[in-house]
User: Which sequence fits this backbone?
């Protein structure tokens, strides 16, 4: 698992700073979203501090588990890539066959291929995560 402590701290401090600036400078009669930004920045700050304290305690366990997940993730990525490549080849062959009979623009065919590959990758990743 990637350590996101620094990124969370930066985002939370930016939200707190922007929220406080908006509270000070906003003179409109409507809803002041500065309070919402200040509140969400505080929640992210609190969450990041708690998760950082918890993660320091479990370093040895995390190192042991990361090796197992790295091998498993590499296996899943390989299977998903192979399956996506097979789907891509079949789609290209089908589109080439259809182009003999129907006029399809390049943009339309590329959009069809991209959307189908995105859906295929998501579903195959879920499948292999469930199976493995």
Assistant:
């Amino acid at each position: 698992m990637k350590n996101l402590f620094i990124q969370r701290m930066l985002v939370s401090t930016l939200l707190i700073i922007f929220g406080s600036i908006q509270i000070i400078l906003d003179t409109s009669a409507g809803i002041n979203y500065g309070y919402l930004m200040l509140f969400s920045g505080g929640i992210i700050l609190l969450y990041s501090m708690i998760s950082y304290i918890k993660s320091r305690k479990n370093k040895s366990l995390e190192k042991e588990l990361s090796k197992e997940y790295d091998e498993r993730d590499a296996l899943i990525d390989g299977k998903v890539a192979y399956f996506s490549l097979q789907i891509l080849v079949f789609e290209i062959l089908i589109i080439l066959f259809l182009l003999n009979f129907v006029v399809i623009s390049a943009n339309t065919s590329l959009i069809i291929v991209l959307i189908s590959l995105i859906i295929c990758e998501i579903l195959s990743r879920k499948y292999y995560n469930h199976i493995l």
Observations:
- The helical segments are 5-25, 34-57, 59-98, 106-131.
- Residues 59-98 form the longest helix (40 residues).
- The mean pLDDT is 81.
- Residues 10 and 40 are 13 Å apart (CA to CA).
